[in-house]
Design the sequence.
């Protein structure tokens, strides 16, 4: 699925979705892209989109539990970033800054809906490690059962623990990066993740080692 995104100034078109042909021969660093954008090179922003779109879409999907909503929020995040990139001071990394914009947009959306949900059990499959890449029918049934249990267990976590778990487990962010994104201390992140893992392991104990965290 692709989402076509036209920049606010309608000078460039960007595609949220894989587009290998659009990648430059040499991937510029974030510092180079930001500097180019501030000098008026709007194509630099399209390269930022291509660089981070999949990571942002993945975490938005996990938080919101709906692919269409996730794509809308990723688009909104890039629009907001487009208008504020000129004032980006580099106090944090670019991707942490983008994550924070997206995270706040997702939280705002959840507050409006008064719903905290995650992806369906089938959609979680890619984030967990199973021993057999092509399981037989009985293994597929067992996998589906485990993924359903994992999804239900995650839903039972308190909101902060759920968000910390999602950011760390599904996007491999470091504690300090999560702290910056969520606006909490690194100690609070570590505590939330510790308690999330402890609760999930307890809730999923019956499945033994068939999943990894």
Sequence:
């Amino acid at each position: 699925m692709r989402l076509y995104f036209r920049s606010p100034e309608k000078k460039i078109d960007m595609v949220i979705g894989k587009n290998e042909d659009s990648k430059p021969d040499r991937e510029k660093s974030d510092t180079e892209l930001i500097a180019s954008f501030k000098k008026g090179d709007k194509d630099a922003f399209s390269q930022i989109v291509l660089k981070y779109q999949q990571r942002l879409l993945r975490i938005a999907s996990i938080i919101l539990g709906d692919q269409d909503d996730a794509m809308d929020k990723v688009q909104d995040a890039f629009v907001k970033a487009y208008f504020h990139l000129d004032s980006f001071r580099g106090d944090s990394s670019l991707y942490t800054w983008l994550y924070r914009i997206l995270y706040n947009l997702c939280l705002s959306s959840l507050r409006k809906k008064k719903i905290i949900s995650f992806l369906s059990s089938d959609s979680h499959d890619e984030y967990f490690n199973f021993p057999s890449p092509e399981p037989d029918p009985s293994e597929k049934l067992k996998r589906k059962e485990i993924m359903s249990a994992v999804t239900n267990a995650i839903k039972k976590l308190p909101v902060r623990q759920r968000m910390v778990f999602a950011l760390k487990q599904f996007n491999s962010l470091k504690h300090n990066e999560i702290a910056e994104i969520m606006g909490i201390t690194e100690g609070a992140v570590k505590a939330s993740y510790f308690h999330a893992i402890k609760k999930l392991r307890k809730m999923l104990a019956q499945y033994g080692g068939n999943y990894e965290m």
